[in-house]
Amino acid sequence: MIATQLAKYAAFSRIAASQARRERNELYGRMAFFAVILGVFSSLWRAVEEAGMPVAADPKSLVWYLAATEWILLSAPPIHIEIQEAIRRGDVVYRLGHPVSYVVAELAAGLGLLAVRAPFLGLTAFFCAFAFTGWIPPLTALFIVVPFGFAASAVITALYLGIGLLAFWLQDVAPVYWVWQKLMFVLGGLMLPLELYPAFVRRAAVFTPFPSLLAAPASFVLGTNLVTPGALAGRLAFWSGVTACAVSWIFRRAASTVTINGG
Amino acid sequence: MVAENLSFARALVTTNLKAAVALRGAFVIQVVFMALNNFTFFVFWWALMGHVTTLRGWRIGDIQLLFGMVAAAFGLTVTVAGGVRRLGRFIEDGALDTLLTQPKPVLVHALGMHAQPSGAGDFISGLIFIVWSGQISWRATPFVVAVIVACTLILIACGVVFFSLAFWLGRVESVATQLWELLVTFSLYPEPLFGGTLRLVLFTVLPAGFVGYLPVRILHAPSLANVAILLLVAMAYLCLAVLVFDYGLRRYASGSRFTTFG
Q1: Smallest Cβ distance to A178: which of B37, B48, B181?
Q2: Would B100 be classed as within a structural domain?
Q3: Residue B260 belongs to a domain
Q4: What's the 3-state SS for A146-165?
Q5: Is residue B259 part of a domain?
């Protein structure tokens, strides 16, 4: 029974992955953008080094830190856009009657996309960070970053799903996404390690999932190891559970209030 | 001819803005959240420059001025020419058919069709950043206006060129979007970070130099000659954009669309 269920959702993942492999323009664009951002920040950190580094890390490891955080963030497919459009057009109504859970099917498709994007963007991160710094962090650190980064991207994908579902009430979820994205940017330590932010930002970040999704996995390349691998696994499991409950609750509320007109 | 086009563009922008403001709640949310978005982005610079006083001669005020200029110009671009980001899709889907049958210029019409309310948030936050930078006196206000207009024209022109690649290459929307975002991204970082060949690129193919760096230099030492040069550069990019679009339009294949329009 469970195997049948899993097979159905695995099919959604496979279809999404094969579509992503065929339509690679967006992925190439992201890879180029990623390379440019790493180039800009390698210049920025060199300039900061000239002025005196404000953090106990060298510019090279900070470029690798950014490579890791950006890899996690860019790998997660922005599925909220498609979900928003499906809700706005009313297409979602046809999906609700299918013998599969709409939410799990969308998540499975998102994970299929992630499976294609993550390796490409990971290689871009690795080669660009190496090209800009001429240095590679200890392999043990990279071996920890990769699985945790992939798990974090999966949780971010689930969060995008939740944001997309808000379109049942908001129609346009872009403003929610912008704020969420910038919270990720600051509280997650996307570009700057969290220790560079004021104390109140660091204190606020502890109560959110963002540091566990970005700063903590990436901290292994800095050597600052914000948490141990075991503790990070526990935090990711906790935030996955919270996200699953939140998404499930949002969808139940939405489905119970949806009004279908016409045929 | 030019006056007629300008009058048509003004009418389009006014109509679009009225339509956007009609949904007052959505409009306000988009404006406020976009402004919040920009301020949150800038937390990065406040945090970094709180530890480092200058970055190759640039202080936090200079970065605020740069960020404000680019945000204001970007906001104006997506407000008055919001269609620029959809141009690729119009071409790809054959959606220019409806515009080709109209008695007005196709490019002006396509650009002015989708005003984005969030642009107002960018514009307002940009102005706040410019004032906040403490680098602009009231007497320099006309220069600020001229420079923002020039930057807006360059952003529109680059958007037209990037998205017009769809005439030759087909589905390029995501690539063109990334090119346009790269232009904006480069514009947001201080000029001394970039050197060598990249600098040449930033003053030609991806003219971030004309969108961000030169305007900041002009506003540090305002002069009519420098503003005139920037406006000439903007006009040159605009002419190039019109030429590329017109040339591409000859290759345009109809989508055989039958839709109501008005």
Answers
A1: B37
A2: yes
A3: no
A4: HHHHHHHHHHHHHHHHHHHH
A5: no
- The distance between the two most distant Cα atoms of chain B, rounded to a whole number of Å, is 60
| Residues contacting B188, CB < 8 A, separation 6+ | B66, B67, B70, B212
Give the model's confidence band at B256: pLDDT under 50 very low, under 70 low, under 90 confident, else very high: low
| Number of residues that make up chain A | 263
Please count the structural domains in chain A: 1
Of A120, A169, A160, A155, give the one whose Cα is nearest residue A232.
Answer: A155
- Number of independent structural domains in chain B: 1
**Owning domain of residue B216:** 2-249
pLDDT at A99 over 70: yes
**Is B5 near chain A, with CB under 8 Å?**
no
Report the C-alpha gap between A1 and A7 in whole angstroms.
Answer: 10
Q: Which domain holds residue A89?
A: 2-257
Chain A residues touching residue B47 (CB < 8 angstroms): 192, 196-198, 201
In a domain, A263, yes or no: no
- Residue B258's pLDDT is 59
Whether the pLDDT of residue A203 is over 60: the answer is yes
Whether A156 has a pLDDT exceeding 90, the answer reads yes
Give the range among A19-33, A76-90, A161-175, B32-46 with minimum mean pLDDT: A19-33
| B59 within a domain of the structure (yes/no) | yes
Tell me the HSE value of A154 on the side-chain side, using a 13 A CA sphere: 18
Residue with tokens 């030492």: B221
Token pair for residue B233? 């550069």
Check B52 against A54: CB less than 8 A apart. Answer: yes
Q: Do A54 and B51 touch (CB under 8 A)?
A: yes
Phi/psi class of residue A189: alpha, beta or left (left: φ > 0; alpha: ψ in -120 to 50)?
Answer: left
In tens, the pLDDT along A70-89 reads: 999 999 999 999 899 888 88
pTM above 0.90, yes or no: no
ipTM of predicted complex: 0.79
HSE-CB at B110 with a 13 A cutoff on CA atoms is 28
Smallest Cβ distance to B41: which of A32, A175, A185? Answer: A185
HEC sequence for chain A: CHHHHHHHHHHHHHHHHHHHHHCCHHHHHHHHHHHHHHHHHHHHHHHHHHHCCCCCCCHHHHHHHHHHHHHHHHHCCCHHHHHHHHHHHCCHHHHHCCCCCHHHHHHHHHHHHHHHHHHHHHHHHHHHHHHHHCCCCCHHHHHHHHHHHHHHHHHHHHHHHHHHHCHHHHCCCHHHHHHHHHHHHHHCCCCCCHHHCCHHHHHHHHCCCHHHHCHHHHHHHHCCCCCCHHHHHHHHHHHHHHHHHHHHHHHHHHHHHCCCCCC
B177 to chain A, closest Cα gap in Å: 8
